[in-house]
Inverse folding.
């Protein structure tokens, strides 16, 4: 393949919430920036999200950096790094304003002159601070797109796959990419690379509600570049995703909070496996479902039943509940309406649900500016890969073992901006002093060898195998047997991928594209495996059914995985500070109080219960402004829908 | 197990490699008789079986990301939410250059607005609400279904071979929608409103005067909410 050489100050991999803000910030600092994106510009998990952002102090005057930071750390089971949670909390308003500068327009509360938050705090937030938006994530995607396009000073390439980051003496010197539009190899020389290439949920496809492109590129590129990876066993599964029909498998049906006051989870025999669902975390609900499946009580598609009929049945509060369900997560409800029967969408029948991969909490081990770090405890920049940065889902250490709702869009912007500025600075102070192109040429000749491989396996079939095996053995429940199984499979995949069939085409060579992604998926699965083996107890998104839960009173630690010179992986623990006992007990007592209250309501006689709930709904709904009626997926919208009628 | 003919859909997939089209007859196997098969289901199953290197775009499977648009029987459809019937022909969009199979090159559209989209509003107070129409336009998922039969975009047709890192000269409903969003934004200055209208004229807004109108992939009223206000403001009617 022909090679085209390019020089930039900063290379940004990815064009979603994190990548676009990183590019914008670096460009504003005067750096020359190239954004490389394998999917079209701005097409990311941000675009397909529910469009909820955490904005500190939007809902109450007594919110503060400390409170928000503590909420994140408590939810993350003390694995979260304080400098990161503080950076997040500090910048959440500023980052949100960047979104607004690029065209995001929320509803403004007349009283407080701030963006208007949702009427209730999302689970785990002790303050109201989640701002919802017309058109959900699509509104954010427009702003991201604008951030890259509007000024006209940022170069970008879509349909372009980064193959590897090139590193010399633990310092970034550039990257090599496959430009599928032109059918050439790009050799990009640059002193700073920002990885903002999203997560890994495609390892579980189709049991995921996220974008196809989440093939673990962020983590595989980083680990091969020599970076430390933190908390890689911690994946967030959304508990309530659809199981059928095939076109809807994995898509979001609801959140714990939308199960409302009387929603419960039942197994195939209709026995309750979890009550007070609306107060539980995503992790708790997923765990309950998968443990019931493991016991042989799973539904036909390996899930459980979400039963919200008690909400619906109450004569006075029932109609309010239906309104609440339809409006609080419109696109999720729309999935249900299209995929399930009419009685089910009216909540008269049960919903079959199963967890789906949603968000990777683990990732590149970074400091508060998104720079790669290594070493003991919180790590040092000098020991990390110099010139390597990460933002958004690519980075780890912020959310620890569990992520609170509405934080990820804010995270992308906060750390996108921080890493963009830091990378621009790095490029000014540490410009490239290339002695030779040897490292690039070596990589390019490796690629040329792969391009002529005429073996017997197709990458797309290996991809399918990985997806099935990861769900079963590295998914929402794990044990030693499963992990051993995945270890053997990884060895097998590694052998197979050396013996694959690559087509001769130059432009958009699908078999080569699949190869690049499959290789990243295998490396990512292996990083996760090492972390999952090291963490021999359940915590947050990592559920080991063969081990005990890790006690909240024990010394918290994070897992760190990196690569050795011989390309084998290495894992260790780094210890974290525990939140003072008094604060932890305070949170625990609050949680128990809320659960007790919810239980009490459930067992009250219907007439009394109905009155209490009606009042509660009225409170919620009165605060709720009407959202715009057109959103993608609404029945009156959509060219596709009309072909069905 | 022998499949019942009711469980099978006969579909034609038009592949494209190295400049050549080829029609592949594909028998899609339904998971049940009642299954409402989407075009994307067909493409995924074809890739799993007889066409392992079939190239097509997809993303969210829920009509949010806007990348899986293809032509079904020569009309643009969002593959993940378009039901397929016996005999349907699935092909790359005819309005953009084909890279491979069902994948088209999209970025000559976005590049039209490089340096021309006046969204930067740092000097303003941000706590201002946008009008309802603004939110109606930001529902656009950028699926490019609106390029179909657009007389403005058709003027680019001699330019429909892949053209790297360059923009098309003539506009399209999507580009006009982005400009109209800026115009509707209460934070945009008067000068920038004027600049955006002039950009629309430069992109060939005149073509809209005799055009019956464009069709949006997600149901936005392009004619009423984008074209009409732009034409009115442009002075082209006088």
């Amino acid at each position: 393949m022909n090679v085209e050489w390019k020089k930039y100050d900063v290379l940004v991999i990815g064009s979603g919430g994190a990548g676009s803000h990183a590019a914008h910030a670096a460009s504003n600092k005067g750096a020359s920036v190239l954004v490389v994106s394998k999917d079209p510009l701005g097409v990311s998990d941000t675009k397909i999200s529910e469009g909820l952002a955490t904005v500190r102090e939007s809902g109450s005057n007594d919110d503060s950096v400390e409170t928000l930071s503590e909420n994140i750390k408590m939810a993350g089971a003390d694995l979260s790094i304080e400098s990161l949670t503080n950076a997040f909390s500090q910048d959440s308003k500023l980052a949100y304003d960047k979104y607004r500068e690029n065209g995001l327009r929320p509803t403004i509360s007349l009283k407080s002159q701030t963006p208007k938050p949702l009427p209730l705090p999302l689970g785990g937030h002790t303050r109201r601070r989640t701002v919802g938006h017309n058109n959900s994530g699509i509104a954010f995607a427009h702003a991201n797109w604008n951030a890259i396009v509007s000024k006209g000073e940022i170069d970008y390439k879509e349909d372009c796959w980064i193959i590897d980051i090139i590193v010399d003496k633990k310092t970034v010197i550039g990257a090599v990419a496959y430009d599928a539009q032109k059918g050439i190899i790009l050799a990009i020389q640059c002193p700073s690379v920002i990885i903002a290439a999203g997560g890994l949920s495609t390892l579980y496809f189709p049991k995921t509600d996220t974008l196809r492109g989440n093939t673990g590129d962020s983590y595989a590129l980083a680990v091969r570049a020599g970076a430390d990876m933190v908390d890689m066993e911690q994946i967030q599964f959304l508990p309530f995703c659809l199981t059928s029909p095939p076109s809807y498998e994995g898509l979001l049906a609801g959140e714990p909070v939308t199960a409302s006051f009387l929603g419960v989870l039942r197994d195939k025999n209709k026995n309750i496996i979890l009550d007070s669902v609306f107060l539980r975390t995503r992790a708790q609900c997923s765990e309950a479902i998968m443990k019931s499946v493991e016991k042989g009580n799973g539904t036909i598609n390996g899930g459980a039943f979400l039963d919200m009929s008690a909400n619906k049945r109450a004569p006075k509060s029932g109609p309010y509940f239906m309104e609440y369900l339809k409006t609080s997560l419109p696109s999720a409800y729309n999935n249900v309406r299209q995929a399930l029967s009419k009685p089910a969408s009216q909540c008269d029948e049960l919903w079959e649900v199963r967890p789906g991969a949603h968000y990777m909490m683990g990732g590149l081990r970074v400091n508060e500016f998104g720079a790669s770090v290594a070493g003991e405890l919180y790590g040092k920049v000098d020991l990390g890969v110099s010139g390597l940065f990460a933002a958004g889902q690519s980075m780890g250490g912020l959310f620890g073992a569990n992520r609170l709702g509405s934080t990820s869009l804010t995270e992308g912007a906060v750390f996108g901006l921080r890493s963009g500025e830091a990378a621009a600075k790095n490029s000014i102070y540490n410009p490239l002093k290339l002695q030779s192109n040897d490292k690039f040429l070596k990589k390019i000749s490796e690629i040329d060898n792969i391009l002529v491989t005429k073996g017997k396996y197709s990458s797309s079939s290996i991809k399918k195998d990985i997806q099935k095996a990861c769900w079963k053995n590295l998914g929402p429940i794990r044990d030693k047997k499963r992990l051993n199984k995945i270890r053997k499979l990884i060895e097998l995949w590694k052998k197979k991928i050396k013996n694959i069939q690559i087509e001769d085409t130059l432009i958009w060579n699908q078999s080569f594209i699949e190869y690049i992604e499959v290789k990243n998926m295998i490396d990512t699965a292996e990083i996760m495996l090492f972390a999952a083996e090291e963490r021999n107890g359940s915590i947050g998104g990592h559920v080991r059914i063969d081990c005990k839960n890790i006690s909240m009173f024990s010394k918290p630690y994070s897992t760190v995985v990196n690569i050795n010179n011989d390309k084998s992986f290495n894992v260790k623990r780094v210890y974290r500070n525990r939140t003072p006992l008094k604060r932890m007990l305070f949170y625990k007592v609050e949680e128990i109080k809320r659960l007790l209250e919810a239980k009490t309501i459930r067992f009250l006689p219907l007439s009394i219960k109905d009155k209490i709930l009606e009042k509660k709904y009225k409170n919620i709904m009165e605060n709720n402004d009407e959202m715009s009626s057109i959103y993608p997926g609404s029945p009156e919208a959509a060219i596709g829908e009309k072909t069905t009628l | 197990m022998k499949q019942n003919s009711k469980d099978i859909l006969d579909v034609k997939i038009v592949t494209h490699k190295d400049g050549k089209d080829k029609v592949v007859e594909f028998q899609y196997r339904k998971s049940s008789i009642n299954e409402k098969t989407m075009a994307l289901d067909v493409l995924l199953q074809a890739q799993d079986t007889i066409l392992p290197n079939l190239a097509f775009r997809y993303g969210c499977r829920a009509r949010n990301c806007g990348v899986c648009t293809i032509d079904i029987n020569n009309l643009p459809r969002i593959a993940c939410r378009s039901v397929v019937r016996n005999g349907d022909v699935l092909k790359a969009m005819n309005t953009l250059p084909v890279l491979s199979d069902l994948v088209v090159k999209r970025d000559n559209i976005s590049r039209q607005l490089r340096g021309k989209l006046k969204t930067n509003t740092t000097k303003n107070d941000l706590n201002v609400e946008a009008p309802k129409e603004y939110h109606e336009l930001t529902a656009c998922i950028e699926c490019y279904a609106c390029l179909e039969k657009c007389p403005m975009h058709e003027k680019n047709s001699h330019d429909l071979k892949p053209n790297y890192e360059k923009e098309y000269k003539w506009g399209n409903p999507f580009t006009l929608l982005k400009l109209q969003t800026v115009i509707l934004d209460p934070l945009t200055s008067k000068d920038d409103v004027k600049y955006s209208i002039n950009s629309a004229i430069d992109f060939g807004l005149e073509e809209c005067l005799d055009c019956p109108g464009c069709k949006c992939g997600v149901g936005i009223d392009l004619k009423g909410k984008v074209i009409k206000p732009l034409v009115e403001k442009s002075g082209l009617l006088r």
